[in-house]
Amino acid sequence: MESVVVILILLVAVVFSGAISRALPLPIPLPLIQIAVGVLVSLVGDMGVKLRPEMFFLLFLPPLLFLDGWRIPKDGLRRDRWTVLEMALGLVVFTVLGVGFFTYWMIPAMPLSVAFALAAIVSPTDPVAVTAIAKRSPIPKRLMHILEGESLLNDASGLVSMRFAVAAAMTGSFSLLAAFGTFLWTAVAGLIIGAATTFCVTWVSTFWNNKFGEETGSHIVVSLLTPFAAYLAAEQVDASGILAAVAAGISMSFTEDSLRNLALTRIRRLAVWDTVQFVANGVIFVILGEQLPHIVSGAAIVVQETGHHEPIWLVVYVIAINLALALLRFIWVWVSLRFTLARAYRRGFKPFVPSWRLVAVTSLAGVRGTVTLAGVLTLPLFLPDGSPFPARDLAIFLATGVILISLVMASVSLPYLLKGLELPPEPSHQKEEERAHIAAAEAAIKAVEQAVHNWGEGRSDADLYTTAGARVMSNYRERLADQNVSDADAINTQKVAEIERRLRLEALKAERQTYFAFGRRHQLSEETTAKLIREVDLLETRFSNG
């Protein structure tokens, strides 16, 4: 019963933090508000949450990494794959070595293996946090795609690196050759198992749906269970469950078309996954806030062991690590950019040369978030001999401080750096979209004509089918007429479409109010009222995203 109450309190705290975020006049990042709410919860009443690292890892990371892989833009990832790989793999190794040795030099009481584990876990970036704080100064799409691809891969590389560092701390030894062999196995096996899990689930679902029909609720539950299945299967053979979850998500984006799900299934699944992402991210940060007082007190004890008796040294350590992370990231981005430009010049191209501000934006946009927090909280509680894991509370506090400081730095600096920033032109997909619309409308008209012919042939009421078909095809013929306009009229056509969209939203609001009124006066049954309102809601969703 106590566990259920704790879960309910955490969910209420997530909802409360979201309400506060919308009410505040300043664009304060939601994770900061959630941490503050968690601290408030701990001050009001200690819930006594005892985190089991392996359970925490299993519950939160697989669905979040799976969803990242599922939704990442594949075109942008393919176009900038080398840049993404340089940032996601090379920068992680660079960060682990640089920050690891720096932290060990700065805090001798922290063992080198633990310092490397801390450096590994603060290396992954979180584009969700960047999106949240850059709403008033949006980050360019191409840069955002690079950051998303980087975060997807460096989540895995950072967490796998942390796993090696923790293993070294637990055993007291480390072999580079053995580590490379282990990394190769965990990475390759994890990727294969994740992809295989998705393909198996897709094949079984397709077979079952074709034979017995599709049930929306069951399919959504299967999609929720897929990342956990991939993670647990990989962990059973000592492979990387993290990479398995990522690979399962990426594979799902490629196999989704073969499922041929119902439209209702896709709509409801999208809503469910959005809710899972919001709740999982929110609960992690609220738990961090709730644990923060205990983390601070434990970290203060470790600081005293270093010979510093003032708690201010905790703040000094956090700021120093953040500066080291920012400096290493800036150096890596600048050097990587020089190599990219050099390759382009050798091929005879004249690439866009970004200013130092774009390099600074790329560096500061590497904020830390959910994965860093989830990973650091999974540090073992005890060594194999039963003694406490060295400097665990200090490592958690430093990682927490890195998250907070990086969020604050990005929220303050990004709007300023992005203002008036000169960027390369974004490629337009307008022509491709127009061609797709034309092809789809032509295919729809042919399908309707064929259906009218087949269904109405030999029937006494064939004229009804002809009339209905004409009404359906008129909408598609209007679409074709709108697409076949000159470039000079395209702007006016877009303006008319925008005005029409806004008028449709006003009309739909009036429809909904009317249906509600009829329902209140019992002039419509509850079932009919709910059906009509759902139809209006679906149309409003379509035109709101138009």
Automatic annotation (TrEMBL):
The UniProt record lists the keyword Signal: no
Recorded GO CC terms: plasma membrane
Gene Ontology molecular function terms on file: potassium:proton antiporter activity; sodium:proton antiporter activity
GO BP term, example: sodium ion import across plasma membrane
Localization annotation: Cell inner membrane; Cell membrane
The keyword Transport belongs to this UniProt entry's keyword annotation: yes
Transmembrane segments: 55-72, 84-107, 113-134, 155-177, 183-204, 271-292, 312-337, 358-382, 394-418
Record keywords: Antiport, Cell inner membrane, Cell membrane, Ion transport, Membrane, Sodium, Sodium transport, Transmembrane, Transmembrane helix, Transport
InterPro entries: Cation/H_exchanger_CPA1 (IPR018422), Cation/H_exchanger_CPA1_bac (IPR004705), Cation/H_exchanger_TM (IPR006153)
Annotated protein name in UniProt: Monovalent cation:H+ antiporter, CPA1 family
Top-level taxonomy: Bacteria, Pseudomonadati, Pseudomonadota, Alphaproteobacteria, Hyphomicrobiales
Extent of the signal sequence: none
One Pfam family per UniProt: Na_H_Exchanger
UniProt-listed PANTHER family: SODIUM/HYDROGEN EXCHANGER (PTHR10110), SODIUM_HYDROGEN EXCHANGER 7 (PTHR10110:SF86)
Native source species: Bartonella apis
NCBIfam families on file: a_cpa1
Origin: domain of life: Bacteria
